[in-house]
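Repro case for the chain-ordering regression, as requested:
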Amino acid sequence: GESVGLHLPTLSVQEGDNSIINCAYSNSASDYFIWYKQESGKGPQFIIDIRSNMDKRQGQRVTVLLNKTVKHLSLQIAATQPGDSAVYFCAENKGAAGNKLTFGGGTRVLVKP
Amino acid sequence: GAGVSQSPSNKVTEKGKDVELRCDPISGHTALYWYRQSLGQGLEFLIYFQGNSAPDKSGLPSDRFSAERTGGSVSTLTIQRTQQEDSAVYLCASSLGGTEYQETQYFGPGTRLLVL
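-- result from build under test --
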């Protein structure tokens, strides 16, 4: 079936380094993608989104890249900080099917001091 | 301003009992969603309310699950005759619900349900 998935379940990164979290999606009709951050015991927190008519979008210390040719999405975190330690989820919205999101399984990012 | 709130934050119940979970969306948001997150897993869509339209119930796992939204605001998710596999975090989200379907969904902290 259609799914959104992640390549790496756990990413360990040194404080100050850049982090890259990858996500693959299978539905070429998906047109909206979102990255969420979830800290332990909390609900998902919106980080950044991107529409399918874009290849790249930047926020504060974060960049999302979308490669529609290979159906791949990535989240780059610059100068990773201890507060970035969390589980990161990518999600897709299939537009005409309603606004419900399909989530990937999540990647845990561990920042080493 | 206030975000999405959910209550209770934790709920422990016995197998076979009914439970009700409450969600208060962000004021002014007309779209409301329920998701379920099992231990160490991603989020699974359950149900979606948009204004006065009929809800999208396509994600409800069984007829023991139901949800309602009163007055276009507060929503209650009810699980009847709970089973151990219902143990999970139940997350509520809301969005503006405008005509543009690509909307940011804002999540509450969740209700952690444990069925013994």
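Ordering looks correct now. Chain B has a mean pLDDT of 91.
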